[in-house]
Amino acid sequence: MRVLGEVVKLTRSRNFLVKMKPPVKEDPKDKRVVSEDLLLVGVVSDVIGPVHEPYALVKVVVPLDKAKEFVGKRLYLVERREESRLITYPDT
C-alpha cells in the first residue's frame, strides 16, 4: 500500500477531498483507495489543484453515514498484488 493522503472533507457530490502526500510520482486516477484496515472506501476520480499541492477526488463507495467517519483519516492506494485482500462494506 502507498499513502494517498488525508481526507480533508466529504463533498456534497459524495467525494472525499484528499490532500495528497507529496511527492506524487504517477497519476492515481482510477486506482482503488482503502483505509488502513484494507476496507475499500472509493476510487480516485480526479486530481485537482496546483502541482506542488495536489488534491485527489475519491468517489465514495461506502454508505454516506459511514463515510463521515473517514474525515481526518489517512487513505491508501492499493497495489495490484494487494487487491485480493480488500474488504468491501456489506450492503445495508
Written account of the structure:
A hairpin with a 4-residue loop joins strand 1 and strand 2. The model has no long low-confidence stretch (mean pLDDT 88). The protein has one domain: Thrombin, subunit H, CATH 2.40.10.230. Strands 1-2-5-4-3-6 form a 6-stranded antiparallel β-barrel. Helices cover 4% and strands 40% of the residues. With 92 residues, it is mostly beta strands.
Which helices and strands, and how do they pair?
Layout: E1 2-10, E2 15-20, E3 32-34, E4 40-48, E5 55-60, H1 64-67, E6 74-77
Antiparallel strand pairs: 1-2, 1-6, 2-5, 3-4, 3-6, 4-5
**Please, what is the average pLDDT?**
88
- What CATH calls the topology is Thrombin, subunit H
Task: Give the strand line-up of the largest sheet.
Answer: 1-2-5-4-3-6
User: Which CATH architecture is right?
Assistant: Beta Barrel
> What would you call the shape?
globular
Query: Helix coverage percent of residues?
Result: under 10%
Main structural class: mainly beta
- Low-pLDDT stretches: none
CATH 4th-level superfamily: Probable tRNA pseudouridine synthase domain
Put simply, the count of helices is 1
CATH class reads Mainly Beta
Radius of gyration: 12 Å
Strand content: 35-45%
* First-last Cα distance: 28 Å
